[in-house]
Design brief:
alpha+beta, 6-stranded antiparallel beta sheet, two-stranded antiparallel sheet, 2 helices, 8 strands, 28% helix, globular
């Protein structure tokens, strides 16, 4: 029993540390209200589609839902940060801080214990930084 508890705590700590490594540097909060007034930037939609295509074709997270199934979440969000959900899956996309910067993305499914973190370069190339299938 103690080994299970230690294993679970270790897994939670690992995921927390991985998520912290994906966070942007500026924690400015904005409130997104009235979804009709708020549009997701084209670069965010493009990166979301590129990452999901990369993950399913490379079999890294083949069970991830297709791009059309993801919905923007409402509520408090940091500036330049977009949260999407599809069932038990959660995705966060951070806009780059500069034109030449990378767009960081984290995908998590806590019920399936699956996690992916990476970034999209300005040229559209997807790069893995962490994977927990």
């Amino acid at each position: 029993m103690n080994h299970r508890l230690v294993g679970l705590l270790s897994l939670c700590l690992l995921v927390t540390l991985l998520l912290m490594g994906c966070l942007p540097e500026d924690p400015l909060l904005i409130s997104i209200t009235g979804l009709k007034e708020f549009a997701v930037p084209a670069v965010v939609s493009q990166s979301r589609g590129d990452v999901l295509a990369y993950l399913t074709t490379s079999a890294r997270l083949a069970a991830a839902p297709p791009d059309a199934d993801w919905q923007l979440e409402h509520g408090q969000q940091r500036e330049g940060e977009f949260h999407f959900r599809s069932g038990d899956w959660h995705m966060t996309i951070w806009l780059p801080s500069s034109v030449e910067g990378n767009q960081h993305i984290a995908i998590l499914n806590s019920s399936a214990h699956a996690y992916w973190c990476g970034y999209v370069k300005p040229n559209g190339q997807v790069v893995d930084t962490a994977l927990l299938p």
